[in-house]
Amino acid sequence: MSILPQTLGELRRSQQFSEPRVRNRRVKDEMRDNLITRVRANCPVFPGIVGYDDTVVPQIVNAILSRHNFILLGLRGQAKSRILRALTALLDPQLPYIRGCEIHDNPYAPICRRCRELLDTNPDDAPIAYLSAEDRYVEKLATPDVTIADLIGDIDPIKAAKGGHELGSEYTVHYGLLPRANRGIFAVNELPDLAGKIQVGLFNIMQEGDVQIKGYPVRMPLDVALVFTANPEDYTARGKIITPLKDRIGSEIRTHYPATIEEGIAITAQEAWTERNGHQLQIPSFVSQVIEQIAFVAREDKRIDKRSGVSQRLPISAMENVISNAERRAIRWGEKVVVPRVGDIYAAMPAMTGKLELEYEGELKGADTVVREIIRSAVARTYDKYFHGNSSMNQVVQWFDLGGEIQMRDSASAHEMLHKLRGIQGLLDKLNALGLSGKEPSEVLVSGAEFILEGLYAHKRIGRSEERTFTAGEKQPPREKPRMREEDDEVPDLRRQRRPFN
Questions:
Q1: Fewest CB within a 10 Å sphere: which of 5, 103, 227, 291?
Q2: Residues 252, 73: contact at Cβ < 8 Å?
Q3: Are 91 and 34 in contact (CB under 8 A)?
Q4: Residue 138 φ then ψ, to 5°
C-alpha cells in the first residue's frame, strides 16, 4: 500500500491528487463522476436497497447526474435514511485536506482565514490529512429546538477574548454542522420538524453556495451536497417545509413500500436477525409469507391510520420474535432444528401492536383484537396460494365434524404434536402442496400441518378457541325461503281486523 502524501508539497508532486480535474472538483461533480463509473460498469448503485430498482433509484440517479439537492418523501420504514447513508459509496475513498482545519479545507483552494494565512507563509510544508468517505457524511435529525447556531455557527466571545481578536474576525467563529460538512454530504432527516425561521437559514447555501454567520460579513462559499427526508403526511401535524425552501430543492423523490410479497420477504430476510448462535434454523416459506402478508393486510385495513403507514420494521421485528419463540421451544425440548410455526406468529404480537396507529374504530376494538384479525386474514391469503379449492380438505374437515379436536400449543414439542396430528385423517397427506414430502424432520411437518389447520380456521371451515384448540366449525342452520301466497286461512290478516270506535 502506497504512503499518502503528508505535506502540500508532496501532494502537488503526487499523480493521484495533482490532476487539475481532481484538485478543484466539487463534491457534486465527484458524486456524478463516480456514479457514471458505476453505471457504466453495470454495478448496483445502492447495494442492499430492495424494491426500488425501477422506481426510486432511477430518480435518484437522475438527481445526482443533474447535480441537484434532493429530498426523499415517504412514510416511515421506507429506507429513506438508509439511502442517504448509502450515498457515501459515491465519494472518493480518500480526500486530502489541510490538517487541523475544522471545515476540511481544500489544500489547493482554502476558504477559511487560518488556512489561507498558513499557505501564504510556508505552503509546501503545510500538513495534510485525509477524510474517508464515511467521515464526509454529516446527518442531523431535525427537531423544533434546532437553532441557526447549531446548523450554521455563531460568534464565540471566548475565542475572541483568548486570542485578542475582534468579534467580526473569522478566528472567533464556532462552526455549526453545515460548515463542518464542507466537501461532503449534509443530510437533514424529518425536514418539516425544523422551525420555519431555521429553514430560511438554508436559502443561501442552496442557491448561492455560501453561508453568513451572525450578521457579520463572514461569507464562506461551502462545497456541500444537501439531501433531506420527510414524511409528507406529517406536514400538518408537525410543521411543514416552507415554500421558498421547496422551490430551491432540485428533485423531490417519493419512496414506497414493497410492491410484492417477494420483495418484502427479501427485505425482511436481509434486515432481520436470523443468524442465531446454537441451533440450526429452518424457516418454512409459508411462515415467511404469512409474516410479510401481515404488513400488506395492515396497510389495506381501514382500522389502521393510512397517514402513519405500516413500517417495514413490523415484519422484520415480527420475524425476529417468531424465531425467538421457536428457539425457546427448541431449547426447552432439546430439538436440533428451530422451525417456526403459525402459533409462533401469534406469540409475536408484542412486536406488531406498537407499530400500528389505529383509527377510532380500531381503538374501540383494541390493538390485540385488530392484530389477531389481521394475522388471520394473512393466513387465509397465504393458504389460498397453496390450496385453491375447498374440496381437497373435505376429509380433514369431516374428521372435526365427527367430533375430533386437537390443541396446538406453541410450547409443545414437535414430537408430541406430530403424534397427535397423525390421528387426523388425510392431514399429513396434504403437505405435498407445501413442497413437503413427509420425510422432513418432525419440526417441519408439524409447522406445515398447523398452517393447514390455521388456514381452514381462517376460512371458517373449522373452529378454534382462544387456547388454540381446533374443533368443528359452527354450522349455520339453513334459512327457509318465505313462501309467496295471496291468502292464508291459518294466519289471520290483522290489517283487515278493525275495531269499531266506541
A1: 5
A2: yes
A3: yes
A4: -120, 125
